[in-house]
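tool=predict chain=A
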Amino acid sequence: MIRALVSKRFPWPRLIVGFLSLCLFLAGCSQPVTIDPQQTVISPDHAPHVQGALLQAVSQKSDGTLVYTYRAWKPVVELELIYGEKCLLEITNVPVDKLKYVFEGEQGLTDPASAGIDLQKPRLTIIAAAIPKGVRGKLLLEPPADWGAGGSFAVIGDTQGNNEAFQTAIKQINLAKPDFVVHVGDLTPSGQEEEMVDFLQTSQELFCPLYSVPGNHDVKSSQSAHYEKLLAPAYYTFDWGVNSLVFLDNSSGSLSREQLSFLGDAAGKGRKTLVFMHMPVVDPRGGTDDHAMTDKVAVATFLTQVHELNKNIRTVFNGHIHLYDQYQKDGVQYVTSGGGGASLYAEADKGGYHHWLLIRDLGGNIPLDIKVNQFQPPPRRDSLTLSG
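tool=predict ok
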């Protein structure tokens, strides 16, 4: 009887539903709502126009402020604010403490604070810019002119999804305090989007930015779609000290005419040029094992170009072969660094060890100083064999 009265007088189901709705509402107020940039109702043209970074996510704070999250793929980033709307810009993968921040508006070049832009530095590689309503112009992030002088950078390759090994290397890399890290390809086992995301999450443990080229494993599942959406364009360049760094995509075993022309233009400016790509032009092991570029016409064109520009091109870095090797030809250093975590291709006395490189420019015409840093990866959790 009491149960019947309660059920008639108190609408418990509606109260419970209302309570749960309130909880969900409050939770939504405390957490930003993430929106897939490919599916958002916000027009892509409505976001700030950006050079040097990729839009990773759009979210919304409880007060309605839109948050645009970008990942920089080179040190120089330009964000054009054309709509005058209040928003928050988060730019990740930047050398926060080594950048200059300039705003170009109606009054010319000024400090961002003069335009009401509040810059925050939540991490060593993340800058957040709170843009007030009505601000229009360009926010420029760039290293100073002497960036790279007396500095260093790290090189690693062929982690191939072994993010535990990558974490081990990262701990050593952070202690060395390089300006940035270059990954020479095969970041993932098969280039799936979730593998790229896992790699990026691991790379956030770095105290410096990470730049990269795609490897053949990174384009397996979707050609280069996931890589170019999340990491970087197929090829690009930026300056570090007196050097121009040129990043190329030979993950298919070839180099397109456009890329060869791009290299020629970049190296023809008279600056010392460092080239990064995944596959070597020659397999350093020799013999019948040949995992070098398969397009021999492109190889010949590349080598001819390097020979003609050897006064400018000083070093070519690659991965793909899971070992360490270095040789010099016609005044150009060729460096293979494929020991980032994947299974090794040689015995230790022939370069078959897990490693990363620390590169220093000693100035003048002296070859780059290359320090090989070995590490021992932990056992892979996804490859343990249980017995008994």
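The mean pLDDT is 87. The longest strand covers residues 53-60.
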